[in-house]
Write a structure and sequence with these properties.
Blueprint: E1 44-47, E2 52-58, H1 72-85, H2 87-90, E3 94-103, E4 112-123, E5 126-135, E6 141-152, H3 156-161, H4 164-171, H5 176-183
The protein binds tetradecanoyl-COA (MYA).
């Protein structure tokens, strides 16, 4: 997870959402951010300065592992989704290759997890990023953290591996921004 010596600093795309702007969902049925997934995380990410974002996710009863506490896999999903959202600021499509997660404190149901994430380096198709999630407010104590390695892919990654019905539906999405995020970001 250490960037190689020839890695460079990430460059914010000139058309990236302005700091403070909500990113919205990249796909309505995404378990992390989609609004058409009733039990999903419905994570809301917002652009920050540089190649960084903030995000919030409220833990619902559907997200429990131990009684009254968030499931670790759900928290990993929140971190994965937050780190994945960063790639929209670079205007690349990328998927998670590796995700290293530390669970520092339990996160109770009804808690708002305040996440912040940034891209730290880019090396060819590899995008290195890091995130923390805090409870008790944006400056609260750290409950989770993760480092991510995302690999840039072409849209063919989804067309070749996904189911045609969902691909077709996403391509016909009337939400222009969401369609662009899914299909038009690669040259
Ligand atoms: C419908 C469309 C919607 C689209 C919306 C946007 C999507 C948003 C989704 C948001 C949802 C949230 C996000 C999600 O949940 S994304 C969903 C979870 N992730 C996946 O499903 C990815 C599955 N994996 C793959 O498809 C392939 O393995 C990929 C594409 C990742 C690489 O296979 P590919 O054949 O292309 O590349 P390569 O093997 O030549 O590797 C290239 C370089 O990368 C390095 N490397 C690779 N893996 C690892 C690793 N594990 N650790 C360390 N390094 C690794 C490798 O050493 C090499 O380095 P170098 O030799 O160059 O130095």
């Amino acid at each position: 997870m250490t960037p190689p010596d020839d890695a460079t600093a990430p460059v914010r795309h000139p058309d990236a959402p302005a700091p403070g702007e909500l990113l919205g969902a990249h796909y309505a049925h995404c378990f992390g951010c989609g609004d058409a997934q009733p039990h999903g995380l419905m994570l809301q990410a917002r652009a920050a300065e540089g190649v960084a974002i903030t995000a919030e996710f409220t833990v619902k009863p559907e997200h429990q592992g131990a009684p009254g506490l968030a499931h670790g896999g759900v928290l990993a999903t929140a971190l994965d989704e937050t780190l994945g959202s960063l790639n929209w600021l670079l205007r690349v499509i990328a998927v998670t290759g590796r995700l290293e997660t530390d669970f520092v404190r339990p996160v109770p149901v009804d808690t708002v997890l305040h996440l912040e994430a940034e891209v730290t380096a880019v090396a060819g198709r590899k995008i290195y990023s890091t995130a923390v999630g805090r409870i008790g407010g944006p400056d609260g104590e750290i409950a989770v953290r993760a480092d991510g390695l995302f690999i840039e892919v072409k849209v063919d990654h989804f067309i070749d591996n996904g189911r045609p019905e969902e691909i077709q539906a996403a391509m016909s999405d009337p939400d222009q921004v969401r369609r662009a995020r899914a299909f038009e970001v690669n040259p």
